[in-house]
User: Which sequence fits this backbone?
């Protein structure tokens, strides 16, 4: 466990081996029918990696592909940012004020189990633009996990720390800033990372359902997948899916990395 | 500078609400003389910690009153500092940040800042000022908490089984260390403990507490100069005799706490108000 550089290199190497092994399995699985006449079920229907990579190489030269990225990313970021901006204060109010909790929690708990996608039809109707309706649904996807994680996290606060801060004379505001906020920070980061993952799931589905964008491929990554499906372009479907996976992975990693920066005491051991 | 005399008069404390309400302390009276260390020893779960919590201002008296230097207590105050069984340093603050956590200490008050650094020096943590609590050993964490409490110049220091979580070696060292530090400062202290040796090492007076609902059963004076070492206590005849006395009382209280549930069970079984099983109390 000594030497952070070695550890990081090892992690990277293992990751690379994992990806390559996975690609190799996929290639073999997809091609076996052609090579020896024994088809692997399901995998046989999937385009092999070399075809997908070929398609990807073409796609990355098209502006439309990157437009799709930008568009989906934009929707995700706005939705996520609003979810943080609204969710964190709401959660902290629920945690600190019994009155607020009593007023808001029943409504919150009723709305929470509704899948974000069930909001799509309503969102399309009551938001003036399609962009806003998709962003709204994305917001909902991140909002609930963020609030819920913070509320749960606050329940784990060490009561003795609150007592100590009171006996040191910190007052309500001081206790909030010095005990409650840092105590819930880990839950906040977890909630944000989960929320970020869900925004990607939601944005794609919302793009699929709302069917926005034009056929040149600038309707977001979800629409790119949908469009490829309509055009029966199998490799392109897979490229779209993998792009989504990478996007989700990268953004959750970024959220966690930023979170770790906010919590230097967690790295110290 | 001797201050911090505590007078506890007919204190009763009820905890919990509704059917879960329990009388934890009943008509308990005692004095903590200023400048001295008083140990409070009793069976575990008897309600000693509740008394500590009342003195710290975390719990309220149901009846009776507690006076500190003649004034009745009202809520928590920097004048009354407490150390819990397990470390209660803020994990997100460094050692120094923890020590100067009280608002008065954080202001741009050079003198206080210097006092904080001196205190850290005194408890041997100057080199660890910028570390996080997770990077400190158990003994260091306790010392950081002592420094945090003492920076407030508390009239009363409450130590609630403060060495319980430490390993045996560290515990002995910390006990002697704390004895020295508190004696040097003339700090009025309440030491809540279940450990007779710890009480004899640190305290001027030992209050032996009864079972729940607790009250003072007997008071012993420890007539040996402070600070003491573990050897000094072992070699002192009076101390050892006192120890036997305290243990005898404690055994008696523990036996009662064993007998009590058995008695009430018997009571239920017989279905009448017959006398509980008093015979089990004295048998050994």
Assistant:
């Amino acid at each position: 466990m000594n030497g952070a550089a070695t550890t990081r290199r090892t992690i990277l190497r293992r990751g690379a081996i994992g990806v390559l092994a996975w690609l190799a399995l996929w290639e073999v699985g997809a091609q076996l029918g052609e090579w020896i006449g024994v088809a692997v079920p399901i995998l046989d229907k999937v385009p092999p990696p070399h075809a997908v990579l070929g398609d990807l190489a073409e796609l990355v030269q098209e502006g439309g592909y990157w437009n799709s990225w930008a568009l989906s990313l934009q929707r995700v970021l706005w939705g996520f940012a609003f979810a943080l901006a609204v969710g964190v204060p709401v959660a902290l109010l629920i945690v600190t004020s019994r009155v607020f909790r009593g007023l808001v929690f029943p409504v919150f708990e009723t709305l929470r189990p509704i899948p974000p996608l069930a909001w799509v039809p309503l969102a399309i109707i009551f938001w003036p633009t399609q962009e806003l309706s998709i962003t709204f649904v994305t917001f909902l996807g991140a909002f609930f996990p963020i609030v819920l994680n913070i509320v749960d996290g606050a329940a784990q606060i060490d009561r003795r720390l609150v007592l100590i801060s009171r006996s040191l004379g910190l007052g309500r505001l001081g206790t909030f800033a010095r005990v409650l906020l840092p105590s819930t920070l880990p839950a906040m980061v977890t909630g944000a990372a989960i929320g970020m993952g869900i925004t990607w799931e939601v944005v794609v589905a919302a793009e699929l359902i709302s069917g926005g964008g034009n056929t040149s491929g600038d309707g977001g990554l979800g629409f790119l997948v949908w469009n490829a499906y309509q055009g029966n372009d199998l490799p392109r479907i897979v490229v779209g899916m993998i792009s989504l996976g990478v996007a989700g992975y990268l953004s959750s990693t970024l959220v966690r990395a930023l979170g770790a920066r906010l919590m230097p005491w967690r790295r110290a051991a | 500078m001797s201050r911090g005399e505590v007078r506890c008069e007919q204190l009763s404390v009820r905890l919990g609400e509704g059917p879960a309400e329990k009388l934890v302390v009943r008509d308990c009276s005692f004095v903590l003389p200023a400048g001295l260390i008083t140990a409070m020893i009793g069976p575990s779960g008897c309600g000693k910690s509740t008394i500590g919590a009342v003195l710290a201002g975390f719990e309220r008296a149901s009846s009776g009153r507690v006076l500190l230097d003649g004034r009745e207590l009202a809520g928590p105050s920097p004048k009354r500092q407490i150390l819990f069984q397990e470390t209660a340093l803020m994990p997100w603050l460094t050692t120094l940040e923890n020590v100067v956590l009280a608002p008065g200490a954080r202001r741009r008050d050079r003198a206080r800042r210097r006092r904080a650094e001196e205190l850290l020096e005194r408890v041997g943590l100057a080199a660890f000022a910028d570390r996080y609590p997770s990077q400190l050993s158990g003994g260091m964490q306790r010392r950081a908490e002592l420094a945090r409490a003492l920076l407030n110049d508390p009239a009363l220091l409450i130590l609630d089984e403060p060495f319980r979580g430490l390993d045996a070696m560290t515990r002995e060292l910390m006990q002697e260390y704390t004895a020295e530090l508190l004696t040097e400062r003339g700090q009025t202290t309440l030491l809540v403990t279940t450990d007779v040796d710890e009480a004899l090492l640190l305290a001027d007076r030992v209050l032996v507490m009864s079972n729940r609902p607790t009250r003072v059963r007997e008071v012993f004076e420890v007539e040996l100069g402070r600070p003491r070492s573990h050897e000094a206590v072992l070699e002192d005849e009076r101390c050892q005799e006192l120890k036997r006395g305290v243990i005898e009382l404690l055994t008696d209280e523990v036996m009662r706490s064993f007998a009590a549930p058995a008695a009430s069970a018997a009571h239920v079984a017989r279905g009448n108000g017959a006398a509980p099983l008093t015979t089990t109390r004295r048998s050994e």
